[in-house]
């Protein structure tokens, strides 16, 4: 039986730029690095950056909705997103859901999000205003 998400591996084109972004800008903890990769963590999530010469960035308007969302406490949200803006991150979407969210790209065009809120809060908002055809399983 599955019991959680073990890790994410992101293909990157330049390890130094990605390490700078994830460690210094986003604040993930660096555990190890080598010539073609690095291991970082964010809470219990293990993130592997792996240099891949085939990695090609796709403009947000030409890619799907797949993205990776990180949790952030409400009191930290404004300062964190202001720091991202000062560093010129590219925004790929405006927030339209409940809870504060900020959608941005990493140096290789991976779609990321920082989000204030939990699944329970999302479900409560959906119960109040369900998506078209939404059915609850509880």
From TrEMBL:
Protein name, as recorded: Glutathione transferase
InterPro entries per record: Glyas_Bleomycin-R_OHBP_Dase (IPR029068), Glyas_Fos-R_dOase_dom (IPR004360), GlyoxalaseI/FosfomycinResist (IPR050383), VOC_core (IPR037523)
VOC domain sequence ranges: 4-117
PROSITE patterns: VOC
Pfam family, one: Glyoxalase
Gene Ontology molecular function: any one: glutathione transferase activity
Record NCBIfam families: Fos_GSH, FosA
Keywords noted in UniProt: Transferase
Known EC number: 2.5.1.18
CDD domains (UniProt xref): FosA (cd07244)
Class of the enzyme per the UniProt entry, highest EC level: transferase
Organism of this sequence: Enterobacter lignolyticus (strain SCF1)
